[in-house]
Write a structure and sequence with these properties.
The protein contains 9 helices and 9 strands. The protein is an alpha/beta fold. This is Polysaccharide pyruvyl transferase domain-containing protein.
């Protein structure tokens, strides 16, 4: 069976966990035979999954694209959470948790944890220099496009993680590292966070920061001028067919405010962590389903 997952241009930790984790857990089941797809970590359950092959779903979630209508070609071992189960019309017992929780059996706690980290959503990186904002707030920056091993080590060394990236929080929780959810932009999908949190008896209540923009950094003078002309046209209600330009750069005061708010969140906010008993129960159920998968498909 072939591993099916989203391959983000430039990389993205949550998606890139797939080959890292599944090639450790079920290497004997994976190959390039795409007559059967193994649908793993990610918000993958939508109309974009190829129709023809048989699909085996393990811990994926719904949330993007058109709602999926499963048929006989789908086999669900587990899904991310109860919201996914509900929208797909599945038995709630399949709503175990995100499959990335299995990272707990592959990565062990270090002797000490000494840093406080911030990990943005990978789409936020193009909107502003979040590395600079994070470091100005005194936080260790975790780049969601870095290699999986590097990101795992950074999360595992953290006392806690301030996370806009959901899989930053999911992996932190699995490694028993506390986390704080924040939301800086509208592309952060509440549904998938709520789905995962509710699978482990938690509630998603992110700290919301005002949007910060510096999307034109690195652009040449010509590209900046084109964007300026587009913004002027939009004010005059012309150019509806144009590719919309990014918002203009935020002010220095807005950047200072974002740095202050991020620092304050890290200093005083309560951290989140699922209860040991609840997490361990979900992990055991994932392991049981993984055994069922192996038992059914080993030749």
């Amino acid at each position: 069976m072939k591993l099916y997952y989203y391959k983000a241009p430039g990389g993205n930790f949550g998606d890139d966990l797939n080959p890292w984790l599944w090639n450790r857990l079920i290497p004997e089941l994976l190959d390039e035979d795409d007559s059967t797809l193994f649908v793993g970590i990610g918000t993958l359950l939508n109309h974009r999954v190829p129709v023809a092959p048989r699909k085996l779903v393990f811990g994926s979630g719904a949330g993007y694209g058109e709602t999926l209508k499963p048929d006989s070609r789908w086999k669900f071992y587990c899904v991310r959470g109860p919201l996914t189960a509900e929208v797909l019309g599945l038995d709630r017992k399949l709503a175990i948790t995100d499959a990335a929780a299995l990272i707990a059996q592959e990565v062990h706690a270090p002797e000490s944890r000494s840093i406080v980290s911030f990990m943005p959503h990978h789409d936020s990186m193009s909107r502003a220099d979040w590395r600079a904002i994070s470091e100005a707030a005194g936080l260790h920056y975790i780049d969601p496009t870095s290699p999986v091993e590097e990101t795992l080590q950074a999360i595992n060394r953290s006392k806690f993680v301030v996370a806009e990236a959901m899989h930053g929080a999911i992996v932190a929780d699995a490694l028993r590292v506390p986390w704080i959810p924040i939301k800086c932009y509208s592309h952060v999908l509440d549904f998938k966070w709520q789905d995962w949190c509710s699978s482990l008896g938690m509630t998603y209540k992110p700290f919301v920061l005002p949007e910060i923009w510096d999307a034109e950094r690195g652009l040449g003078a010509k590209a900046k001028l084109i964007n300026q002309i587009k913004r002027g046209g939009m004010k005059l209600r012309i150019g509806a067919e144009w590719t919309p330009p990014p918002p203009p750069k935020s002010s220095a005061a807005q950047f200072d405010s974002a740095i202050h708010q991020l620092k304050k969140i890290a200093d005083v906010a309560n951290t989140e962590l699922s209860e040991d008993q609840i997490f361990n129960g979900a992990l055991e159920r994932l392991q049981e389903q993984l055994w069922q998968l192996r038992n059914s498909h080993l030749r």
